[in-house]
Amino acid sequence: MLLLIDACFWSHCRELHDAKIWDLRDILQSFSWGYTKQVFQEINDHQLDDYVPDNAGMIIEVRKVEMEQLYAMDPIAATFDEADQSLIVIGKREDGLVLTDDWVLAEECKGLNVSALRLPEFMLNLVAIGIIEKTILYRALRFWDSKGRFQTKEIRRLKKFLQALK
Amino acid sequence: MEQINFRVTVAEKKVFDMLAQAKGISTAELAKQAVLKDISQDRVDLAFDLLKQGKAGRKQAWFVSGLDGRAFLAEWTRRGAAETIPDETIDRELDDILKIDLKKYMRKKPEP
To answer: Which of A49, A82, A152, B50 has its CA at a distance of 20 to 30 angstroms from the CA of residue B62?
Structure first.
């Protein structure tokens, strides 16, 4: 069981870090986490390596036959890029939780019984188990609202959830 | 890697070759650089259109844009862009929000 973090999620976490709101890396040591070779490649190709910690997560191999099994089981998955496909495969194999801010991938994961969370929901869950303070998520929500990162409806409902948490 | 082939006249090919030689790169590399430069604005526009239409998620839109992560998010804010996610998707996500037990993914502390 581990967290599988995609490039998009890392990019949004870096934005929160740049805005001095929260740093995902501060809490990662408490979790088992990793990425696939394909995601690692994207991290390097898209200059995220200045944020993603070196050698800290597990790099997990995906076999070609596993990818082929995925295409056979779900032809729609074949339309995703290799990094996304690899996360679905490992998510299934390792009972992983895919962390992605790409709702299309999150939906695909859920359709295949792979757990997935986007960043606001992940942070809300972290608040719920006492890993981060409510004020951090309030600041993140205000920041996302100012930048238009999430729909107003979603932000409003997240605030409501947050208020209801003890 | 994939390949794109296109035809040019003899005269155009000669100019391509001369320019490539002057830059010290191959003709194919020159053509690739020219095409990518020419479409750079179009691909940013396309990325945000796809995002707005709900035809692409954030990652796909980001990669289509060709911008680095910070530049993509800055452009998102500059344009006042919005991602279109179906209402039922958001409702379902929010309904399931606390069903995942994150503690399952935490490292086990070594026993004393």
So the answer is: A152
